[in-house]
Amino acid sequence: MDLLSFYGLFLAKTITIMIALTMLMLIIPTIKKRHNSRSGRLMLIRLDKYYHEVQNKIHLEQMNPLQQKLWKKEHKKKEQKEAKYTKKQTKLVQNKKKPTLYVINFKGSMDAREVSSLRKEVSAIVSAAETGDEVLLRLESPGGVVHGYGLAASQLQRLRKNGITLIISVDKIATSGGYMMACVANCIIAAPFALVGSIGVVGQIPNFHRFLKHNKIDLELYTAGEYKRTLTLFGENTAEGREKFRDNLNQTHILFKQFVHQMRPKLYIDQVANGEYWYGTQALEKGLIDIISTSDDWIMEKISTHQVIEVRYLYSKSMLDRLNHKISYSISKLLERIIAQ
């Protein structure tokens, strides 16, 4: 009896191990496939068709069943007639077609990691754009790290260098690094109460030296180069280090001002580059923006004269990426609230 029990237990363990190994062999290729798919994909959405469909749905909802039936019949005839006309015109004039308005979105975090998608979207548009095409960037960002937003602004400059008109719309906020991006545009539009400006630089760092000293904890830091470290988290900061840190901030601010003035030469840069922000209507008076409007109104106005295509480059996100995104987004929203106070 004991032998049968022992054999049964051994058999159960063997089966369990075999099942575990089989599952592992099935899971590993899936993990590799997901990892490889992280290169992302380009997504195109015809916004003009979407708006027309919404408009038709609203019209239909206001009709009774008989009116709906008649409308659908007439609408179908109209579509067939337009399709035949378009086909005929295409054969007659190959190069004659509506210009395209490409719509891209940038909702920036502190580290501006969204620039990885932006560069793919810009590259796609540059490779396909033709004469007369335009780009509308719907921008929302309170700013962040200089090198991240500097790269984002450089990506947008690629559009202008290729002769593509760039319009940037600010519906909520484009301050600091966000405005560094916005000023690249041929035309900046903003909602009346959107936050714009904050052309300044900020740097802060906590220091735990006194805490370590109080608890008799020594920290040894070695550097080669006088200014390899200016301010540190745990070391004792010096007056020279603080002065160099402030000098670095001032130099960055000068570069920021020069860049904005280069992009918008009519702007009185010294009057607006003090770190202050303004609402849309105030920003228009200061020359920081060109038009008071929303991105929705701009798109609706363009539908009659342009094809409107939204371009998105989507990366596959791991659970850790999604968690980091939520944390960064929460910090960005907190910063936005602090600025708005």
UniProtKB/TrEMBL annotation:
Task: Give a yes or no for keyword Lipoprotein in this entry.
Answer: no
Top EC class of this enzyme: hydrolase
Q: Could you tell me one molecular function GO term of this UniProt entry?
A: serine-type endopeptidase activity
Q: Which domain of life is it from?
A: Bacteria
Q: Where does the record place the Peptidase S49 domain?
A: 159-301
Q: What are the recorded Gene Ontology BP terms?
A: proteolysis
Q: Does the keyword Chaperone belong to this entry?
A: no
Q: Which family does it belong to?
A: Belongs to the peptidase S49 family.
Which protein, by its recorded name, is this?
Answer: Probable protease SohB
Gene symbol? Answer: sohB
